[in-house]
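Self-study notes.
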Amino acid sequence: MSEKPKIIVVLGPTASGKSDIAVKLAKKINGEVISADSRQVYKGLNIGTGKITKKEMLGVKHYLLDVVSPKKRFSASDFKKLAETEIQKILNDKKVPVICGGTGFYIDAVLGDKQIPEVPPNLKLREKLEKKTTEELFKILRDLDPDRAKNIDAKNPRRLVRAIEICEAIGKVPSHFAKASRDKTYNVLKIGIKTENEELKEKINKRIKKWFKQGLLKEVQNLHKKGLSWKRMAEIGLEYKIVSLFLQNKISKIEMLQRMQTETLQYAKRQNTWFKRDKKINWFNPKEITKIKKITEKF
């Protein structure tokens, strides 16, 4: 019986340093990186998503970056299909797939740890829900499915609407399905990048300042000029939502920076909550690269 192909997953909250570690590991083990980030799939969303640059890739091939227009919807189901294709390509080239990202639902979907419900869009329900505030949407979801409400991005109206839509159709958002083909097909090593709260807070604040120096305001302005609506910007992610509010003169510059820092830290905490339920993750500090390489070599 031939040995099962190996997949390495590098995961962690925003600003934890996982992209850098994924590149170092890929170089060490003849791997290629598949990005598992729900916003880095979009073209033109570079600074505000912390998308890795060509220089930072150090020659390592990356997949599932810049695959779709931000005007279009991209789901976990879309990600799963594309990721499975890329995994097979990498394996066919006798290389190791390294999945790297912070979108836990995407990672779980491609590894078979999460069920993706095949629930079609309910346009009538969506029209009704889109009139409600984010807070109202979160309360509706919490009443319908408290478990899903605990780990969803409570500030993302698009995800809240979709979760409510699924609940209305099948009763609740499924959390797990019986370990399916993924566990039988691959050997998976999960490496989590952990950072203490104060250090993570400092990293996030530093990163946000860097983004503004790099031209985040201009990036958002350009996206809007190219036809991306303010409403769609708010759906895509908190960084784009907050900057777009400032550009519409709805909040001040100080409030924009404060909200970016506070809400990004809250988002990172939600990511950690999601990941910490998985007991198969091997956690390391980003500085422990030697230990990370050792566990990878033994795998």
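Second protein, same conventions, sequence then structure:
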Amino acid sequence: MINTKTLEKLDWPLLTSHLVNKTQTFEGKERAASILPELTQRAIESQWELTLQLKEAFSYGATPFSFRTILPIKDTLRCAMIGQLLDQDNLLNLRNILRTTKDFSDYARTSTLKTNKTIAYFDRKITPLRPLLDLFEQTFDQDGNLLDEASFELKRIRIAKNSIARQIEGRIKHLLQKNTNLAKYLQDDYFTKRNDRYVVPIKIDGNGRVDGVVVDTSSSGLTIFVEPTAIRPLNDDLIQLLSEERIEILKILLDVSKKIASHENELAQNYEALIDLDYITAHALLAREWNAQPVAIVSEPVIDLKNARHPLLYKGEVPPVANDICLYPHQHMLMISGPNAGGKTV
């Protein structure tokens, strides 16, 4: 069991903060912040193998993979699996994850990285799900709102809505032009909406100047909102279309949620693989920055480090003083001595 107080004395939290700064994803940062020393040879060497392959690629000029903003997906997938409709934020996050998996698939096939073993390892773990991404791109705009082209019926409804809105606005303009004495009773805007119905905002002392029904008043009570009789039938048609639009939107979102649920396993695996990739990439970037190297791990109680440096003192162009540190089985003590800035800190 690793003693966390001992790690604090060794400045472990400060060390992990450097790793956190190299990560790009929310969970990647959490994982880097909570990392503890691995104590099994197999686990150490397995991670080294992945890290060193990327470090070498970056050292030869390869560009690290750039992540989009992706957030945890577990709760989103659980909602989709039980048939709940996903909200806008969840849908945007899912699209970002789908786009990121596609980006990585393209990245893995670039000429400088297609033979890299670490990139190939993650490429095997990630399924791009391009048809699902295509569905998202055809259904939602950049802000997560439904596009008109999301379905034939939605497009028809929205065209009809826009047509009726233009007719209503035209009739209101005509009404106001006929009633020239009404202008002094109007508020700044000559029409607005209340409860999805077009109305004319009139000062309270102009009540009765427009043939219609008062549908609302302002919070101050100084303005009344009148629905002119001439546009009431069109307002009724508009309300009907708004109801049809809401029903069609629910149908589309339900269909998208079902598609997401059908790919629950692949989405979960993709997300975990992306977090792993972010985590390993951070290790590789830090290893390159600090010129970190692996050591040979042996089963005997031996320490034999060549040119060892304290990582937290590494400044790139001004590296810390390196030292050889050796301690063999027949030795029971290591004396550390020397001048200031002589390399004792390692």
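Instructor comment on the second fold: The chain has a mean pLDDT of 89.
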